[in-house]
Amino acid sequence: MRTRTVLGAAVLGMLVTGPVATAAEAPSIAVRDKQIQAGQAVGVVAGCDATNFTGSKVTSPALDADDLGSADPGEPAYTSAKVKPGTKPGHYTLSFTCGGKTVTGAFDVAAGNPGAAADGDDLPDAAQAPEEDDTVTAAPAQPSGPNYGLIALAGGGVLVAGGVGFLVFRRARRRA
Question: Where does the sequence pass through the membrane (predicted)?
């Protein structure tokens, strides 16, 4: 009876803490404009869950971007950028640093002329939140670094397996 209680408590603990350990929102970065073309002014939005986030440089082979400003944990940071003139249509990446780790997103540049946005006078306001009809054109962010939730879940599994092994060994030893 005691063995079943211990085993049940261990399994219940794994089920409860596993999803909680991985529930934190992952850092991300994206270009928030719908149609992106060479020479166009665009907005960039990034999310960083680090408590000490004080801003970061945005890097991309296709963008000239201002630095991200600081933001409270869980709140997005915004900045302005311009797609470099002469950028060929294709798939490009952009990245920033969050809590010492590089976070990368992606966007596509389409063929065509962006029109008035090419002069750079109407860059989006860095502090302006996206409008409701703005959509994000980006691939999911791929933060580099360990997945602590998965590591915690695996560690818990090892502890449960070790505990069950100990109980089985102890029970077998009593019978012998």
Answer: 148-169
The answer to whether 42 and 56 have CB atoms below 8 angstroms apart is no
Do 9 and 56 fall within a single domain?
A: no
Which residues, 6 or more positions from 10, have their beta carbon under 8 angstroms from its beta carbon? 159, 160, 163, 164
Q: Among all chains, which residue has been given the structure tokens 């596993």?
A: 18
- Which structural domain, as residue segments, surrounds residue 96? 28-145
Model confidence pLDDT, tens digit, residues 95-154:
999 888 999 999 999 987 654 444 444 444 444 444 444 444 444 444 555 666 777 778
CA dist., res. 113 & res. 40, Å (int)? 9
To 5 degrees, how large is the angle CA 145–CA 97–CA 151? 20
- pTM for this one? 0.53
- Four-point Cα dihedral 147, 57, 28, 155, nearest 10: 10
Please report where in the chains the tokens 């029109």 appear, as a residue.
115
Is residue 167 located within the same domain as residue 122? no
Phi and psi torsions of 53, nearest 5°: -70, 120
In the chain, the N- to C-terminal Cα span, in Å, equals: 20
Q: Of 25, 42, 27, which Cα lies nearest the Cα of 92? A: 42
My answer on whether 13 and 76 are in the same domain is no
What's the domain count of the chain?
A: 2
